[in-house]
Amino acid sequence: MEAVYKTYKPAWRSFYGAILLMILILVLAGVVHYFKPDYAKWTWITAVAVDFVIFIWISVKRLTMSLILRDDPDKPENQEIAFVVNNPFKPFSSDFRQSIEIGLAEIVDIRVNQTMMQTLMNIGDVIITSSGTSGQEIFAHNIPDPLAVRDEIQKHKRRHSAA
């Protein structure tokens, strides 16, 4: 069998609140431009600058979290699910990168939690618990198509449980 390496990141559509805020800021700038044309230049510059900062924040937040499925039949040490979170605000700290690895055979429970809005957007939280722990070990927020991700992990877990 061939090796499987899949990486899941939060969906862009999971930042709908921030995206709506960006649109609202531009609409407000348009309203100010209409009623106070003498302030228009600075209003647009400020609105675009704030939207740019929000966009950078969304991009950084999305890039700093990964849920990784590793399943290499030739290497037993690479049969795991890994959750990696980077904290860009602590670049020189030991807290910069935090990761949790759980062997596929050690997974006890995989759950998906979705709010109504997440269900409509087909995103959700994937929660993975392993043997020997009392609580959740991996809590991945806003993963696209979380039911398919859960099914994929369970498929690989069953293959290792049967072996």
Defining key terms:
163 residues, alpha+beta, PH-domain like, four-stranded antiparallel β-sheet, three-stranded antiparallel β-sheet, 4 helices
| Measured distance between first and last alpha carbons | 13 Å
Mean pLDDT score, rounded? Answer: 86
Shape: elongated
Helix share, percent: 40-55%
Q: How many structural domains can be distinguished in the coordinates? A: 2
Structural class: alpha+beta
CATH class of the largest domain: Mainly Beta
What's the β-strand tally?
A: 7
CATH topology of the largest domain: PH-domain like
Order of strands in the sheet with the most strands?
1-2-3-4
Report on the structure:
With 163 residues, this protein is of the alpha+beta class. It folds into two domains: 4-10 and 67-162, Roll (PH-domain like); 14-61. The chain is 41% helix and 30% strand. The protein is built from four helices and seven strands; from the N terminus they run E-H-H-E-E-E-E-H-E-E-H. The protein has helices spanning 16-35, 40-63, 116-121, 146-162, and strands at 4-8, 65-71, 79-86, 97-103, 107-113, 123-130, 138-144. The strands form two sheets. Strands 1-2-3-4 form a four-stranded antiparallel β-sheet. A hairpin with a 7-residue loop joins strand 2 (65-71) and strand 3 (79-86). Helix 1 (16-35) runs antiparallel to helix 2 (40-63). The chain is elongated, with a radius of gyration of 21 Å. The model has no long low-confidence stretch (mean pLDDT 86).
